[in-house]
């Protein structure tokens, strides 16, 4: 039986493309279930489009992305639009570094045009699936894998020595400065004042003026995702924080921080908002806290003081992610949810 030729493209090779599409489909190609090619938009040729049976547009918003999709449609290809953010609703209370770009009328019109042209919406968030289900013939809701599990190394358990230094981490990008200022600055001040002898705080991805009086180690964001994975695996955090605003836009994001923190053996503290409430069971595989200064402060202190509970949560989270978000399992789920990827001819006769 002829294997399906799958072409995926994104304007830039961002983590969303790597996690959600490239790595799972590369695995399916390795298993000889399909032929897979990924390219950035500017590299896609007419020959690539002609050869492909299925074309996946990853977060497309440019005229060039429309051109590729339109040519694919004219050639009778099966077209999929992958979204892991609600790109039409990035305004409001969100503080994304690319907010101005996605609020442009021409970019919004481009996104709508791609939606109108594609057959299938592929997303990792049920709110996106529900919101745009009427714009596509088919909607496929899948998970993305926990790529930090790919190292195939056994988990290194945290020390349960109460006198040992506890490292607390926060991995984010430049647009996470707002979260830090609004939610974490004062709680971090409080725990440093109380536990200065036994904690260490590390932040990956940003530094701003408000940190000048807080002893925090800051590391630059790794643009290369493979380097980011290696760096995160090297940190060996005991705890990690993932604040998130309670907005319609943020409720359409993926809970990737849960997967990352759980994979490296860190006990995660998460804002008590979607999408974390989809996956985190409070005090079982993570800690959910409301977005107030007191709640975040109390949550941090609770995990610092309760070593055994912290380790239980960490162990539960790691095992949960290993069982449910291993890349092999996610790849199987993708095949079931989007059968066109592996038996295109059978699904289009």
Approximately what portion of the residues adopt beta-strand conformation? 15-25%
Question: Order of strands across the biggest sheet?
Answer: 2-1-3-4-5-6
The major pleated sheet works out as: 6 strands, parallel
H/E element sequence: EHEHEHEHHEHEEHEEHEHEHEHHHH
Tell me the number of strands. 12
What does this structure look like?
The protein is of the alpha/beta class and 349 residues long. The protein folds into two domains: 4-145 and 326-347, Glycogen Phosphorylase B (Rossmann fold), CATH 3.40.50.2000; 149-324, 3-Layer(aba) Sandwich (Rossmann fold), CATH 3.40.50.2000. It has 14 helices and twelve strands. The chain has helices spanning 15-30, 46-51, 63-74, 99-102, 105-117, 126-132, 177-195, 225-235, 256-263, 276-279, 293-305, 307-324, 327-337, 344-347, and strands at 4-10, 34-40, 54-58, 78-83, 120-123, 138-141, 166-171, 199-204, 217-219, 239-242, 267-271, 287-289. Strand 1, helix 1 and strand 2 form a beta-alpha-beta unit. Helix 1 crosses helix 13 (327-337) and helix 3 runs parallel beside helix 5. The longest helix is centred in the middle third of the chain and has 19 residues, at 177-195. It is elongated, with a radius of gyration of 21 Å.
């Amino acid at each position: 039986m002829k294997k399906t030729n799958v072409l995926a493209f994104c304007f830039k090779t961002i983590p969303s493309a790597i996690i959600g599409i490239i790595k799972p489909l590369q695995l399916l190609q390795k298993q000889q279930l399909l032929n897979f090619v990924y390219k950035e938009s500017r590299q896609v040729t007419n020959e690539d489009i002609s050869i492909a049976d299925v074309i996946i547009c990853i977060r497309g918003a440019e005229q060039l992305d429309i051109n590729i999709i339109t040519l694919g449609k004219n050639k009778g290809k099966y077209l999929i639009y992958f979204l892991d953010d609600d790109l039409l609703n990035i305004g409001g209370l969100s503080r994304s570094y690319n907010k101005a770009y996605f609020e442009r009328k021409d970019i919004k019109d481009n996104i709508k045009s791609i939606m109108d042209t594609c057959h299938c919406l592929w997303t990792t968030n049920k709110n996106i699936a529900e919101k745009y289900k009427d714009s596509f013939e088919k909607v496929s809701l899948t998970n993305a894998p926990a790529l930090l599990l790919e190292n195939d190394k056994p988990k290194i358990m945290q020390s349960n020595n109460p006198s040992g230094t506890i490292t607390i981490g926060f991995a984010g990008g430049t647009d996470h400065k707002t979260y830090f200022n609004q939610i974490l600055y004062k709680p971090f001040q409080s725990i440093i004042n109380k536990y200065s002898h036994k904690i260490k705080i590390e932040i990956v991805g940003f530094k701003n003026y408000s940190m000048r009086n807080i002893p925090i180690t800051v590391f630059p964001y790794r643009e290369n995702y493979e380097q980011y994975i290696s760096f995160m695996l090297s940190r060996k955090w005991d705890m990690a924080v993932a604040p998130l605003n309670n907005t319609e836009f943020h409720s359409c994001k993926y809970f990737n921080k849960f997967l990352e923190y759980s994979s490296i053996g860190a006990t995660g503290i998460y804002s008590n908002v979607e999408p974390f409430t989809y996956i985190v069971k409070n005090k079982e595989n993570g800690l959910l806290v409301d977005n107030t200064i007191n709640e975040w402060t109390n949550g941090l202190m609770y995990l610092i003081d309760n070593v055994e509970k912290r380790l239980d949560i960490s162990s539960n989270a790691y095992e949960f992610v290993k069982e449910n978000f291993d890349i092999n399992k996610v790849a199987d789920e993708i095949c079931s949810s989007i059968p066109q990827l592996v038996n295109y001819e059978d699904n289009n006769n």
